[in-house]
Every structure is written in structure tokens, then in C-alpha cells.
Fold this sequence. Notes:
The chain is α/β, with parallel strands linked by helices. The chain is built from 24 helices and 18 strands. The chain folds into two domains: 26-78 and 85-233 and 467-513, Rossmann fold, CATH 3.40.50; 235-462, Rossmann fold (3-Layer(aba) Sandwich), CATH 3.40.50.460. The strands form four sheets. Strands 2, 3, 4, 5, 6, 7, 8, 9, 14 and 15 form a ten-stranded mixed beta sheet that branches. A hairpin with a 6-residue loop joins strand 14 and strand 15.
Amino acid sequence: MDLLTKFSETAGKHSPLEEEIRKLPLPVSSVFVGKDGKVRPAAFRETDMKLVCKGHERIAEVFPRTVEKCRNIVLEAVPFGDTPVPEGKRVAVLFSGGPAAGGHNVLAGLAIALGEKNTLYGIRRGPKGLINGDLFEIRKENIRSIINIGGFDYLGTDRTKIKTDRQFAQVKETVVENKLDGLVIVGGDDSNTNAAFIGEYLQAEGIGCSVIGIPKTIDGDMAAGKFLPISFGFDTATKIFSELVGNLNQDAASAVKYYHFVKLMGRTASKITLEVALQTKPAIALISEEIAEKNMSLEQIVDYIVKIIARRRIRGINHGVILVPEGLVEFIPEMRRLISELNACLAEYERDIHDLPTLENKREFLYPLLSPQSAQLMASLPPDIQEMLILDRDDHGNVKVSQIETEKLLIDKIRFRMSEMKRHADRFFGEGEGKIAATPEQIDGFQKATLSTQSHFLGYEGRSSKPTKFDAAFTFLLGLTAGSLVLAGKTGYMAAVTDFDRGGRILALPLVGLITAEMRKGKEEFVIEKSLVSLESASFKAFSLNRDQWSEQDLFSSPGAIQYWGPTSRQIPVTVALDQGYPDFRDFNLGPEKAIELE
């Protein structure tokens, strides 16, 4: 075979690495291993653990059948034993929301759990496909080409929320027409909330179809403490981001002039930013939850960054990396107030504002409608940020907060403050509270140095990667768990894995135990509560204890590329290891490795 032929054969996901990782054995928890050594489904027993959310009485009113059935009790997987595996079951699976690495291994786990005598169906294009009844049969041999491979492209996905009576009726129609015994929904907090509503609805309609959720999101905000330390996709995404941030740290130190401002995906929680910071030790990392707790203004954040940059400069360090969470602006009190006021004004005066010809006209119209504080803040923002706040709206007419270029906003304000410090050095350097101690020579060096910046946004790069060895194993176990729950006739549960350091403990969490009632825009809504960074967590404390040293010196780390073999191939997220109290983060244990049979 000549070189051209060999090269041509790498197309269609057949690169040398892709070919090899398809063959990788996966760690499998012992509850899924039969006496013959083969992977098979598990059974479940009730534990003495319960998940009870705040406002449980109200949740019980909304999900009466599910609460009565599961009683908020956490289930634990146990070996199936010699009992025959149920046969003739028809189970469908869909992906919902954004991609996350490892989704295809969920399908592999489901297929293995169901075996040859039950049928697995894929639903194309997520919840929309469920509504439209777009199903196809998935066979084991179909999965052989996608196991350990990234993306959601085998099934596709979308973000449709099933809310209306008509949509629920269409779901029922799909379930009945296809004679489904089980429906597995792979998604984040919104998707798993939807799973709970669908499960309750089908029970009310007398439809015996199990509905099981699987936790997916790279943001890491789909977690439940000791029951579910993290969602799948987080490990892969943060390793990819950490490699890139490590490279930027190295570039900054090499070029000796750049500050790289890196916005990291994660609109609500700062878990990605915290994990990447712990892996790479940057000069500065902002944590949204801390900023909200300290009630820091935008100007205070700018002041915090500028002082670190100034202190580094007088030590001869004129470079570094600054990590910024995607959702930072929503945690800054005055920015949150401005966005809220803009949303209200733009909703009430939508037609008036739309008819105004220029951005300047729109600003002049809006300023008198805002509070004086918000109007002043708005006027202080760069024109492109103002334009984004006024013109870029989502489907509900609200500001697209996630698309605000926070890193560029900070750069603009930091540049102005640095220029002010150069012009009025006596106000910022010297003796006295709030001033930076520096010699005349150091001040002179500070005034001569320039601030060169580069901005980056890391998000999509981490969503559809080939999964890390941890995420590949984690998702396979989640698929085995979901398939086992359907075979056991359970409904209204979310598959979960914990004890990543001790062989893996397989749990089923009652979805209603994760849901809470919240007031949103004056209306009661039922949602799974997002898991945010806790300032009392071991991971945040580790960051807090070390960040001053990282800011004063160049102590960055470059964790390098994801390994499938080698010293870091078995590493789990540092934040998970710290918060769960594991002895190490460099060697997960989810059971003995097994070759996965997909014939």
C-alpha cells in the first residue's frame, strides 16, 4: 500500500489515534461484571440515603406520582445475580443541549446493558426528534465505529424545551407508536428537569415507560455533592482548556510582553475557570461566585487586576495570563442591575427602539429610562459593548449575556487605568494605604513599559473532543446504569457514578430530589438547581491559598495534551479530587479494565 493510499484512508474519523482509541479497554465497576467475566446489567436496591430539595412539599404537589413511587430514596446498583435479564424491551435515547465529550460511550453502555434480546433506538436531533418521532434502531455493530470518539453527531442534538400540552401529547404519541419501555435523556439541568416532567406526565397518562436522565455538561454545574461529583464532559473540556492556557502561559513568558486575557466557557458556575486555574497556575483568575460574595464592582475588579499587573511590572515581569469566567458580568452587582433594567426597557419599548435609526439614537432614548447609576455605568462602557447590550437579544428579548466580550471590556478599562497610573505615579506608588511600594527606578521602569494584550475565548474547542480516559469510562458506566434502570422498571431517576477513587459506586438519584422551585420573572418555575463554586470548598481554598504566590512570580504549569496512555492518562479533575477528599488526583479507579464486545 503506497503512502497516498494510506493517507486517504485516514478520512472519515480514521486517523491513527482514532483507530487506536476505538480498541481501548474501559474500566468497568464490578457490579456490571458477571461470574463469567462479561459486562452485563446490574440490579438496584434502596439505600438509607435520601435527596430532598428545598420546598419539597411544593415539588410533591407538581410531581405527585414520581414522589410517591421513588420516595426521594437513592438507589444503589448491585450485581444482577442469576436472575434472567428481561427481554423484549424497547428503549430510546436522545442527546439534548450542547455536546460534551463521551456521549457516544453512553450509547455503548446502553447497548451492552440491553444485550441482544432488547432493542435500542436512537432519536435524531434531540427533543425535537422525540416530538416528531424520528427514531432508528441502533445495533452494537453500529457503535463500534463511534466508541471513544467525540461529538454528538451520531444522533445529533438540539435545545427544544418540551413545555406545552401539545408537545407532551406528541411525546406520548411517539412513545405509544414505538411501543417504548424506556426513554433515556442525556443532558444538563434543563434537560434532566424536562425528563422529570416527561416521566410524571407519562405516569399520569398510564403509560408504562421508564424515563431516565444522564448528567451532561462541560460547565460542571450539574453535580450533587457526594452523590454525583461532576457531570460528564467536564474533565475532557478542562484538560483541553488547560493545555491551551498552559501554552499561552509559556508564550507570555517567551515573548515577555503579552497579557493573554482568556474567557472560559461556563455562564453560571466558574467551575471550569477554577479547574483550569488549579492546573495551570496563571497570574490572575477571577471566580464569579467570589466576586458576588464580596459584592465587588466592575471598578474594584479592574483595580484588583491592575494592582497585580503593576506589582509584577516592578518585579520585572511584564506578562501573564488572566482567566475570566464567561458569565462574570452576571455576578457583578451593578452590571446585573443594568442588564435587568435594559431587559425591562427593551421589552416595554421594543417597537420605539427598533424604529430609531442609529445606535446613538437608541442610547439617547434609553438613558432617561435607566436609573442614574445604570445610565452612568452604561455610558462608561466601550461602544461595542453598549451596542451588544442594546442590539443583541435572545429569543425572549433579553440581553445575550454569554456573548458579551467580558475579556475585551476588562482590557479596555485596564488600559485606561494603567495610563492613569503612568501619568499620576505619585497617587499609586509610595508609602500609605492602598499604594504600591516601589523605588524610583522601579516606577521609572513601570512608566516606560507598555501593556500588550491578546484576548481569547475557549469553549467550543472542548465540547466535542475525543473523551479523556476518565470521561470515556464515566460515560460508559452511565450508559450501563441507565440501561439497567430501564430493565429494572425504574422511572424518574438520574444515573450517577461516585467514589471515583474506589472502584466506582453506581447510584440512581431521584430527579425530584434535585428539583427546586424558583421565582423567575415573577413566575414560579421548577428546575434542577445549578451547582456553583463554594467558597468553603477544598478546591477554592487551595486556589485562594496559592493565588498570591502565582501572581507575584511566574509559577505557571503546562499540563500538556490529553493522554490515553502514559502518566496523566488516569488523572481526574483536581477540583473533584480535592472536594471529595480523595488521596490523589492522578489515578482514578472505576474498576478493572475490560475489552468491550460490540460484535
